Amino acid sequence: MRKTSVIACAVLAVASLLVATAPADAAEAAGTPGTTSGPCGYMATPDDPPARPVSLPPDPKHTPDKGIVKVLVATNQGPMLLSLDRAKAPCTVQSFLHLAKSRFYDFTTCHRLTLYPTLKVLQCGDPSGTGEGGPGYSYKDELPTGLPNWPTDPTGVSKVYARGTVAMANAGPDTNGSQFFLVFGDSRLRPDYTIFGSVDRLGLATLDRVAAGGIVSTPDDPAPVDGAPVRKTDILVARSLGSW
């Protein structure tokens, strides 16, 4: 089964999630079976069954590519208001809004927290809570440009994913699904992860609270820097506050 790594980073922090599959809406799929006919080309992934039933996103001939859409993500640890930037990642924003509208993210658990010195993120978006669930489709990258270089990387390969960034997890090129990560501390990554929004000040306070609780330990790893957060973080509801 194909797995999707959460984030590849300079400290070799690697996680995985499964990009799942869902049946395509007949009205949205054309040409190649299981693939939408618009510019985003959302593609069903039949090898990976969906974590929760959902159709392929709408894929109009012109993907909305202007404006900021606000999405309220209410969690049991506190609220997070996301500002999604259509100009930076129109297909990603379109997919995220579709999943939110379809209640795909409601009552799901953010399954992974990392506390590496150069990777500080909370990962969410898998209804199974295992890190191996997705929406039943994948779609192309919309990778960032112009990110600042990581200050201690003389090669310029590693970039800064700044505190407050919202980005997609993937398993390699063009394998985005439903899982995303929220950056609560500047993180060192290659620019291989689509950035599609940012978290507000209250959302960062929520993330800081989760991070301060640490990571669930085991006898083999009493001081983990990667794993399930002690302060279990459940998304209760995720809804757009603007027009679709």
Task: Give a brief description.
With 244 residues, the protein is mainly beta.
Task: Explain what this protein looks like in three dimensions.
The protein is mainly beta and 244 residues long. It has a single domain (4-240), classed as Cyclophilin (Beta Barrel), CATH 2.40.100. The protein has 2 helices and 16 strands. The strands form 4 sheets. The chain has a 10-stranded antiparallel sheet with strand order 6-16-4-5-14-11-12-8-7-15, covered by helices on one side. The longest helix has 12 residues, at 90-101. It is globular, with a radius of gyration of 17 Å. Residues 1-31 have low confidence and may be disordered.
What is this structure's SSE topology?
Layout: E1 4-5, E2 16-17, E3 43-44, E4 68-75, E5 78-85, H1 90-101, E6 108-110, E7 112-116, E8 119-124, E9 137-138, E10 159-161, E11 165-168, E12 180-185, E13 187-189, E14 195-199, H2 201-212, E15 226-227, E16 233-240
Antiparallel strand pairs: 1-2, 3-9, 4-5, 4-16, 5-14, 6-16, 7-8, 7-15, 8-12, 10-13, 11-12, 11-14
Function: PPIases accelerate the folding of proteins. It catalyzes the cis-trans isomerization of proline imidic peptide bonds in oligopeptides.
Protein name: Peptidyl-prolyl cis-trans isomerase
Domain PPIase cyclophilin-type: 78-240
